[in-house]
Amino acid sequence: MIFREAGQFKSSYREDEAHLVLREERLFVLAVTLFAAVVVPAIAGEYLLRSILIPFLIFALATIGLNILVGYTGLISLGTAGFMAVGAFAAYKIATSFPWMHFGIVFVLAAVVAAVVGIAFGLPSLRIKGFYLAVTTLAAHFFIEWTLTHFGWFSNYASSGVISSPPLETFGYVIDAAWERYLLCLGFLVVMTVIAKNLVRSALGRSWMAIRDMDVAAEVIGIPILKTKLLAFAISSFYCGLAGALWAFVFLGSVEAQAFDIFRAFDVLFMVIIGGLGSIVGSYLGAGFFVILPIVITNVAGLFGGAVATDTLASLELVVFGGMIVFFLIVEPFGLARIWELAKEKLRLWPFPY
Amino acid sequence: MQFRKVAIGVTAAAMLAGSAQAAEQFIPVAAYWTGPYAAGGSAFGDGMADYYEFLNIRDGGINGVKLTYEKCETAYKTDRIVECYEKMKNNGPTGSPFYHPFSTGGTYAVFERAEADKIPIITIGYGRTDASDGRVFPYLFPALTNYWSQSTAKIKFIGSLEGGMEKLKGLKIANVHHDSAYGKETIPVLEEQAKKYGFEFRNFPVAHPGLDQKAIWLQIARQYRPDYVILRGWGVMNPTSLKEAARVRFPANKIVGVWWSGSEEDTRPAGDAAEGYYAAGYHGAGTDYPVIQWMMEHLYSKGKGSVDQDRLGTIYVNRAFAMAMVGTEAIRDAMKMVGENRPVTGPEVQAALEQLTFDKARLEKLGAVGLLPEFAMTCQDHEGGAPVRFLQWNNGAWTSASDWIETDQSIVRPMVEKSAAAYAAEKGITPRDCGA
């Protein structure tokens, strides 16, 4: 009833192939985007923007990247944090070597570097599958981390190995305020989401899914396995590299290998699983669940004002969060995206379910 | 009517609370009670909070201004350290007067935004070494002493064990370090000292987390055969090193640890293997200081305070008290400088930190003679030139193994200034004129 399909006719192939078929959906997405772009920066405080929303946007970007690899192509990867680190350090090296370059170009170039590294570490995926591939990408993670901490060249020989990122300057204007940084991340995320959404519906996206569902059959019907898998690695790493550059430059303001430890890779993988494998909207939901929920738990418990000791509270956060992950996976093994789909179905039928 | 009365009562209570809050000084306490480094983090967070609580109970705060604090869990993760910073920076009537990130990575992530927010970042014994140059880093205070200074004191201590700096010539020193940015930070200063004193050293990196060191210690004890080992570890790496050293019969009293390798949490798990092991510290150990006795009297004996009683006198808890004192004394000085007993702001505390002096008289007043060294910070020098002290692990307790040893600023300061100047050039910062 709320999603009212009656009277919405598709009279061309173009309309039939649109991303959002229903008018209600289009309006909803438009409203959310406008809300995020106009209302949120106007009303949200600095804490909300800087500490919650910016990490959420960046993680959503990384999750979309990993989802392309895990959800759409069926290749399990634990190298996300490593590729993010490549993006961050590449952006730092490019930005300090060519200070005149616009940071947008720097970020894209850094993401390209991450994509190249991703291709190199994607090569084993041609022979190995499943958990074995996960282990090789784990090796990739440690190799990248080791390289970045061991060779001073990557950090411009800074004595502590932690380096501070150059300012984000565009045409003489320095992006610094929380809402400016937020909008920058949002802009990148929106553009990259539209690209991802189109990619997974293209011939390439269908090839990915064919490989995921049965790679032998995909090969038989003429899908080039080598090219398709490596493209998945490249594009996934491109997203992760971009997310890493944003994480270092826009969120943290410093570049360090420890910010991209193995737990970061697990986090992003869990976001993909919780959000829903093979779903772009699920990437958003998973990232939201992972970034926002722990902070909400802490702040809600904090409202009880000192009744809970800080160390108990810190452990409580982990317990509640872990419990919710288990709960969601039992109730809905296909992730939050599936719940989202069911909600939309319900909205179509409401108030007369059958 | 009933409702109206209640409403008036609530409003009045809120106003009272508001006016009471106006005379309170808020201090953020961000530390890590969970995660791999919780042993240190819980002591830092709880110990600092306990010291603030103690001042409230004994003196009613600082000059009558009550201290309030909020604890925030960072799990030693850089993003959470930033989150805690952002959450608490505007709390209380004046916002955060200062912030302790308790992690080197966290220091890098917050110090630039803190400079914009005008909140001093205090990083005692960690963080950015070149921030000792206050001309380039006005809001960053690696107070007391830094890693490079510590390294010079360590070599002096080894010299004193040998019976003179000239005896260092021809000695072999193995630098067993955590293979991370933190672990490698002292290599350049060791190179300088090796040149100056004529000793030889070799680096032995240990991969994180450092549970497997068999091959390294075999190599040290059988091949390299150094006269001394410098242990620059962190977390579980430290007890493992001590145990492996004992296994290859390398004497523990030839191992000198840094101040992140010298706590009870590092030596107790190693058992007998740690007997005789030396470690650096920028504060004393044990409970034999008036201030800790006062805290026991006013706080712990009454069942208050969040640090476990049996942890009192341990290195990490004493370190927390020492760090808390630097902050509270800066607040005290700031009140004196503004001439008013009221909550102070970040810029006021920054000005106070730039003249903060812990001399004999102040240490006596604090009851912290021997717990903290004397030091004095200036606009130019955000380190303060505190000496370093060495402790030895004997029969299950840290005992003093040396007097306060002065650091060699003739080596450190030029390196600090060079590094700070490089940072200033990279960022396009014009160093402040400190009137020197």
Describe this structure in words.
The complex is a heterodimer of chains A (354) and B (436). Chain A is mostly helical. Chain A has one domain (20-349): ABC transporter involved in vitamin B12 uptake, BtuC, CATH 1.10.3470. Helix content of chain A is 72%, strand content 3%. In chain A, the strands form two sheets. A two-stranded antiparallel ribbon of chain A has the order 1-4. In chain A, α2 (23-43) runs antiparallel to α7. The model of chain A has no long low-confidence stretch (mean pLDDT 89). Chain B folds into two domains: 25-145 and 285-381, Response regulator (Rossmann fold), CATH 3.40.50; 148-281 and 390-412, Rossmann fold (3-Layer(aba) Sandwich), CATH 3.40.50.2300. Chain B has helices spanning 2-22, 38-59, 78-88, 104-117, 147-162, 181-184, 187-197, 214-224, 237-247, 264-267, 290-298, 315-338, 346-353, 360-366, 409-427; strands spanning 24-31, 66-73, 121-122, 140-141, 172-178, 200-206, 228-232, 255-257, 278-281, 357-358, 375-376, 389-394, 397-400. Chain B is 44% helix and 14% strand. The longest helix of chain B has 24 residues, at 315-338. The chains are: A mainly alpha (354), B alpha/beta (436). At the A-B interface, α3, β1 and α13 of A face α2, β2, α3, α4 and α6 of B.
Describe the secondary structure blueprint for this structure.
The complex is a heterodimer of chains A (354) and B (436).
Chain A: H1 13-16, H2 23-43, H3 46-72, H4 80-97, H5 103-122, H6 130-150, E1 163-164, E2 168-170, E3 173-175, H7 178-201, H8 203-213, H9 215-220, H10 225-252, E4 254-255, H11 262-275, H12 280-303, H13 310-331, H14 336-349
Antiparallel strand pairs in A: 1-4, 2-3
Chain B: H1 2-22, E1 24-31, H2 38-59, E2 66-73, H3 78-88, H4 104-117, E3 121-122, E4 140-141, H5 147-162, E5 172-178, H6 181-184, H7 187-197, E6 200-206, H8 214-224, E7 228-232, H9 237-247, E8 255-257, H10 264-267, E9 278-281, H11 290-298, H12 315-338, H13 346-353, E10 357-358, H14 360-366, E11 375-376, E12 389-394, E13 397-400, H15 409-427
Parallel strand pairs in B: 1-2, 3-4, 5-6, 5-7, 7-8, 8-9
Antiparallel strand pairs in B: 9-12, 10-11, 12-13
